[in-house]
Amino acid sequence: MLDEVKAPQTEFTHLKVMVVDDSKTIRRTAENLLAKAGCVVDSAVDGFDALGRVSAFDPDLIFIDVLMPRLDGYQTCALIKNNPRFRAIPIIMLSSKDSIFDKARGRIVGASDYLTKPFTSEELMAALHQYARKRETV
After folding, report:
1. How many separate domains does the chain show?
2. 91 contacts: CB under 8 Å, gap ≥ 6
3. Which helix (H) or strand (E) holds 104?
4. pLDDT, tens digit, for every residue of 79-116?
5. Range of the domain at 21
6. What is the CATH number of the domain that holds 116?
7. Which tens digits make up the pLDDT trace of 7-50?
């Protein structure tokens, strides 16, 4: 009977992932999916909160919402990427906006990728697979 219980995935055990989004629903959804994959997850409610937490948490990967109060995702990404200590961390932008302009602006500020909300668990896991490996080899 015990072997029928599905164990959580642990492929990304100890991988530290930060989720920055002003939506509690998006944060919780991403946190749950990432935790099931074995990640250590920290979250922030906006860009200022993220900047205050990134140094202590030292994430391997960051997901950042584009539209947030006080400090938006583009500004937050640029500030993180301008710090030599964090320059190699892959940052994936999250947004309901999916125009070429929005995606290009993400690349300009240093984002590695761009996921359109609402994202699926498969899209989140694909990004995790792609960028966790890149960080390991950096």
Report:
1. 1
2. 61, 62, 63, 64, 77, 80, 81, 110, 111, 112
3. helix 100-108
4. 999 999 999 999 999 999 888 999 999 999 999 999 99
5. 11-137
6. 3.40.50.2300
7. 445 678 889 999 999 999 999 999 999 999 999 999 999 999 99
